[in-house]
Design brief:
Distance between the termini: 47 Å
Number of helices: 7
Shape: elongated
Strand content: 15-25%
Radius of gyration: 26 Å
Oligomer: single chain
Largest sheet: 7 strands, antiparallel
Helix content: 40-55%
Length: about 230
């Protein structure tokens, strides 16, 4: 391509355009907080990387082209992933403006066996966060399960310690329906799992409900958004 003056100009224009697109993408990722490029000197040095990668694609050697191509694809994939992560983090932060809970207190368990997260039917209120799980397994239909986390009003008296004790209660309505409620106090939070519409003791697997309480952990941004917002059709 560089054997003629026109070819050299074309090469320069393509390298300039391709590198500028890469540079703009990196600047955008840094602006939204998805990419940490260090101080001013580091940023100045990294400005040449997109141009070098694009220029390497024009080198005759196959190995150089393959390596530069893989590096370019890796950079694009990484940039896409971290930008998406930054958007999710910003969205969760915006949703939390209406709650007194802090980010680490948004905890969720893995779904019980045979269940899945009911996307979009969760709730983040002033003092609690909850998510619903629906049964999708085979066999007899089982009740919906709701997991909720709330600030423990008695945490100060217990010093906020993680005692992990699980208590169980059964609430029965006049029509014969009822709910099984398991509660656990830990790290200044009160975690509850409620199996709605479970009049029979064998309607739910209590071991699974207890596992939910024991294994609940701080949810990722994607998990929080799936619990609170329905997926786009």
């Amino acid at each position: 391509m560089c054997r003629t003056a026109v070819g050299r100009w074309a090469w320069a224009v393509m390298v300039f355009c391709g590198g500028t697109v890469g540079l703009a993408a990196g600047a955008g990722a840094r602006r939204v907080g998805a990419l940490d490029t260090g101080g001013p000197l580091s940023r100045a040095a990294l400005c040449g990387v997109p141009y070098a990668l694009v220029a390497a694609l024009f080198i005759t050697g196959v190995a150089v082209r393959v390596v530069s191509g893989v590096a370019l694809l890796g950079v694009v994939a990484y940039g896409t992933a971290v930008t998406h992560k930054a958007r999710q983090t910003a969205e969760v932060r915006a949703l939390m403006t209406g709650t007194s809970l802090v980010r680490r207190e948004l905890v969720l368990p893995d779904p019980p066996a045979g269940y899945r997260l009911d996307e979009g039917n969760g709730e983040l209120a002033d003092d609690n966060f909850r998510a619903r799980y629906v049964y999708t397994g085979a066999g007899r239909q089982r009740p919906d399960v709701v997991f909720a986390v709330r600030r423990d009003p008695g945490a100060d008296a217990r010093g906020g310690r993680r005692d992990g004790r699980i208590t169980e209660s059964v609430r029965t309505r006049g029509d014969g329906g009822g709910s099984i409620v398991l509660t656990c106090h830990r790290d200044g939070l009160r975690l509850t799992v409620t199996a709605h519409g479970a009049p029979r003791p064998d309607a739910v697997d209590r071991g699974e409900l207890r596992r939910m309480l024991r294994k609940a952990r701080t949810a990722g941004d994607g998990q929080v958004l799936r619990a609170l917002r329905r997926p786009v059709a």
